[in-house]
Design goal:
By secondary structure, the protein is α/β, with parallel strands linked by helices. Helices cover 29% and strands 13% of the residues. The relative contact order is 0.07. Keywords: Signal. Residues 1-18 form the signal peptide. Residues 58-156, 178-188 have a biased composition (Low complexity).
Amino acid sequence: MKVLGKVVFLLLLGGIWCHNNRNAKASGKSTKKSGGNQGGDADQPPPVVDLTAGAAGSIGSTRGTESSGSTGSSGSTRGTGSSGTSGSTGSSGSTRSSGTSGTSGSSGTSWTSGSSGSTRGTGSSGTSGSTGSTRGTGSSGTSGSSGTSGSTRGTGSTRGTGRSGSSGSTKGAGGTAEAGREGAAGARAAEKQTDDMRLHFLKNNQVTCNDGTAAGFYLKEFRGSRRWLLFLEGGWCCHSKDTCDSRYQNIPRLMSSSGWPQTKRGTGILSSQAQENPHWHNANIVFIPYCSSDVWSGTGVAPTPPPRLRQGKEKERDRNTNATEYTFMGSLIIREVVKDLVPKGIKQAKVVMLSGTSAGGTGVLLNIERVASQLEQLGAEAQVRGLVDSGWFLESKQQRSPNCPETISCSPEDAIKIGLRLWNGVVPDRCRQLHKRGEEWQCFFGHKLYSTLSSPLFVVQWLFDEEQLRVENIYMGGRSLSEEQWQYIQNLGRELKISLRDVTAVFAPSCLSHTVITRSNWMSFQIKGTSLPRALHCWDRSLEATRNNRTPAKGCPFHLVDTCQWPQCNPTCPALVDQTTQQELTLLQMLVAMGLDLQKLGLDPQEDAGSLASVVSNGG
């Protein structure tokens, strides 16, 4: 038994010796493969894949001189600070920390890194680096790219100022989270800069604003796009010396370019943001400021005497004695803008949409045929379309003095009759031929002009347009409203519906407002569940289908007119605001605030509120 016991003991010793010998050889091979690490533990467990952000990954010695950051190996660790190391288990590697906490060593095989080299972190964390020595002197070391090997190097060391380790990426070159955030912020800043439209003055300096300053346009190019959106600003007009003097004193930007900024940010359909402008954000956008006061119809100065540019007190004195000091060149400005856009690529356009609001919308009606003809003469094959927003006016019902001492007391037709002579204004040829001399003013009204135009038009018109009401001396939210004025308001909605009956493409909500396409919230207004941008897109698709001899898609409407009779019966209408208190009111509340007796008018607040709710629930 003693002999047998000795034999068993010898066999056990031999087995242990062989086992240790094999482990030593394996450890030697592992040491060679890992770059000759020393001091490792022969019985270290297998590596653990670390998918955390900022995980350490370079194989080699990692030294941390302050607090620990990202995870590393669980090899031999010496901590001289208050805490030991933390991190994922990896291949053997000696880690020494001399700060408040021991840093984590490197993990052997990690999906978040793969390069070899010494990484030294002198900040609060040493994270993975690409091949070669990477030194982090800030609060976080660099985050290397995944899978780099050999002599490949990352994007360089990155300094950080935060406490935490940087976020690593599984692919591509890395950087600290701070650097990533700074880069993203820089990209956003650059994007905001490119969203701006930049001012360009006309090359032809003979075509000017009212006061002789240079006319121009703002342009935001979208490289590669063959769609162009030209926008005419609104602002009504002046038609005599007195009205133009008053306009120049009170709203000089509508008569002079001297105060125009170098850049302008577009909103609504002029926005470059897809979320605000889903179908036209990627077009070349041109904003043409209104400085001619002629509803974009003028073709030159008043006949006599010829104008000359003046400065300072001389100009001020002469303007008070000579109405012809002003030049009216609205139509010529549009012509020159198109010329100046030729080097920008408008000749290669597929679609050119001439748009405008208020007087700019009327300007679209007056100039769309000229723009189409001009582009055709330049050799362009673009289809020219028109978008008229709140420029579809009706003649006034009031009898007033035809002399029009003030713009505000002048009916639209009287202002235009007088202004046409001063502006040397022009109207589309086919419409002009339908009217005798002196009656050309009728071509400023869309319902009389529309049928003579050959270019496609989309009309956007609030059924209770505030500017249409203003010329009748009706101010919603003002101090008072008579029964006759309330009756006029109701009749206006009915008459506008009739005038729009034969318009192919139209969006007419039953609301009290003025202009819409340049509002940031223009997508929120709907008729029977269809928004204005959606209706415009449907119209666009229909025109493209027609050009390509295809059948237009069904279920995509673009003739949308509210059927309810009340102002504000559409639930998506802009809110009514009391001009005195600036509080939002319902229609009935506003009528009461303006002095109307609802019961005398046959309006029961309770009953009519219920009928309004019924209209709203039925979608207008």
